[in-house]
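One record is set out below.
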Amino acid sequence: VFIEIYFDNSHLVNVISNNFKHDERLALMGTIQFSSTIYDTFNQLKELNYNSLIPQSKPLSPGETLGCTSAILPSDCSAVIFIADGRFHMEAAMIQNPNIKMYKYDPYSKVLSSEGYDIELMKSIRKREIEKAKQAKTFGLILGTLGRQGSSHIFNRLRKIAIERGKKVIPFLMAEINPIKLDLINEIDVWIQVACPRLSIDWGGNLKKPLLTPYEFEVAINDVEWKEIYP
């Protein structure tokens, strides 16, 4: 169930027109509850002769961004105007588009702020955890059961690959991946979670054992190459 939130976006349009040039290509994105505002702002900017766009990452709605899913923007995009009252979902857009300027418009405070994300630090931490996993023998493979986060197809494929590589795999079903509980299970060398990649990105580096995404596991066993733009 999604709740649509409407607000007077005249201030947002004025802020954009006073701070951005007409030849800058602006991407309008945000969280699902502000989708109507994204469209309305796009139409108003079009009337002001701005070359804006609403990107889409299917099956999400145009402009919609989740914490682990964001559209990849075209190279001619100058900046993103992200409508939201928090950073979590916006950070997905920042991770997927590290070279594009990001601005967050909070509809409650009516503040447009320039936002940043330390992509290089994130990548260095994830590379470190992948290196730790390369010599591991026992893997705890977690299928997230919260909502529609987990994919049984990916879970079964990773399990098959790990066993074929001579790894011991212990399967787990978890509605909530709790780092404290994971640290209590000593038999596991490395965790792989098939749920939300942000669980690994945001705090996986603080666990006693690596907590990898499916992509990171496949990098660790040399099935796929490391990508400079984190997928």
Remarks:
- The radius of gyration is 20 Å.
